[in-house]
From TrEMBL:
Lineage per the UniProt record: Eukaryota, Metazoa, Chordata, Craniata, Vertebrata
PANTHER family (UniProt xref): UBIQUITIN CARBOXYL-TERMINAL HYDROLASE MINDY-3, UBIQUITIN CARBOXYL-TERMINAL HYDROLASE MINDY-4-RELATED
Residue ranges occupied by any EF-hand domain in the UniProt entry: 261-296
Major place of residence: nucleus
Name listed for the protein in its UniProt record: Ubiquitin carboxyl-terminal hydrolase MINDY
Length: 403
């Protein structure tokens, strides 16, 4: 094995001195990019683990299909056949989204490395290797290509713990660094905005608005806090993370990712002073919040507001009354209801074990609106980390699964 290949393997699987990876976990990752027979643009995942690559690729595929206005169920293109005219057209559709993701220039075939210098050359290479990336190691070859394109040293400089491999050697799950690499192009280990200092260490986060987003159930359990750059991407497509799996939520409703309204900005700023998500702040912080929002913050006025928002002198300011006081009747521009879709690549996680997009209707209410109370599933709890008052009505008998 060449030194370069060894570095790639160590980065992905861990150094041999750390125990390496078991044969069973490696086997779970040996699959290609295979599309569902029931949904011709939905990638299928055979076992747990490779969702860390498959879900991000699916996100970029869906983004491309949304951009070109593919019809409902996104069945306008087929990749399940051989490299016919139809599948070639689909490949032309997929490639630009992948190029936009990682500027892919290196492709593997039979252990050799190929270098291309243009997008047209890349398309020719992808088409020539059609059966290779559909084959048993297509996902891993794609991952290795991403690593070589980004640069091993560049990835190591971004990962918080350089001893942590991109694939967990015990459970076989992809790390957050791997997910962030495929979503943002940067293999940082955290999901908050910007960098943070902790005990003299600089912990890297996300530095600009992502094109596609990321939400996680772990935030609803208060294990982490996803920043606005991932929560509010440029396009209405999000990877959803559970404890063990990644799926995708998306819609055509662009108002969901429109410019931040004043009330949305106020909510974000208020919550930045409420890191525990209690829904309130100590009244001593009210002046700081008002200053951060460029509201009048003269001491006499702040004192007057405190008395109005905390008439019982409890010493706290609630988010709801604060927003009503300063941003009443704010229209978010989001329609009353709109269609949404959920994708899960695991057969066993889908109704009748058919990998298909699950269609539903979503309502994003305001904090003052009466609650509809549809369901309380992990998908909804995950989405509530961005839209606290979202409601979902699915067309299937059961809600889609995060796992």
């Amino acid at each position: 094995m060449s030194e370069l290949n060894k570095e790639v393997v160590d980065l992905v699987w861990g150094r041999p001195s750390s125990g390496g990876v078991s044969a069973s976990i490696f086997r779970r990752w040996t699959q290609g990019f295979v599309f569902s027979e029931n949904e011709h643009t939905a990638l299928e995942q055979f076992e747990g683990g490779p969702c860390a690559v498959i879900a991000p690729v699916q996100v970029w595929l869906n983004l491309k299909l949304l951009a070109i206005g593919a019809k409902s169920q996104f069945a306008a293109f087929s990749l399940s056949t051989g490299p016919s005219q139809t599948s070639t057209r689909a490949l032309d559709t997929v490639n630009p989204s992948i190029v936009a993701l990682i500027n892919l220039m290196f492709l593997f075939s039979s252990g050799s490395k190929r270098t291309v210098m243009s997008v047209s050359g890349l398309k020719e290479e992808v088409l020539s290797l059609y059966h290779t990336w559909r084959g048993c190691c297509g996902v891993l070859l794609f991952l290795y290509s991403v690593i070589l394109t980004k640069g091993i040293e560049n990835i190591r400089n971004e990962i918080q713990d350089t001893m942590e491999p991109l694939i967990d050697p015990v459970h076989g799950h992809g790390s957050q660094s791997l997910v962030n690499l495929l979503v943002t192009g940067h293999a940082v280990s955290n999901v908050w905005d910007g960098d943070r200092e902790c005990s003299g260490m600089k912990l890297h986060g996300i530095h600009k608005q992502a094109s596609v987003g990321f939400l996680t159930l772990m935030e609803s359990l208060r294990y982490c806090k996803v920043g606005a750059f991932l929560k509010s991407p440029k396009f209405p497509i999000w990877i959803l993370g559970s404890e063990t799996h990644l799926s995708v939520f998306f819609t055509k409703e662009m108002s969901l990712v429109g410019p931040e309204s004043p009330s949305e900005q106020a909510r974000r700023v208020f919550q930045s002073f409420d890191p525990e998500d209690n829904g309130f702040i100590p009244e001593s912080l009210l002046e700081d919040v008002m200053k951060a929002l460029d509201l009048v913050s003269e001491p006499e006025y702040v004192s007057l507001v405190k008395g109005k928002l905390d008439p019982e002198s409890l010493g706290i300011i609630l988010l709801g009354p604060f927003l009503l006081e300063f941003f009443p009747d704010q229209d978010s521009g989001i329609p009353d209801s709109f269609p949404v879709y959920h994708y899960n690549g695991l057969k066993q996680s889908n109704h009748n074990e058919r990998v298909e997009y699950v269609e539903g209707t979503s309502l994003v209410l305001g904090f003052e609106d009466p609650m509809v109370r549809t369901d309380d599933t992990p998908v909804k709890r995950c989405l509530q980390t961005k839209w606290p008052y979202i409601e979902l009505l699915w067309t299937t008998d059961r809600s889609p699964s995060l796992n």
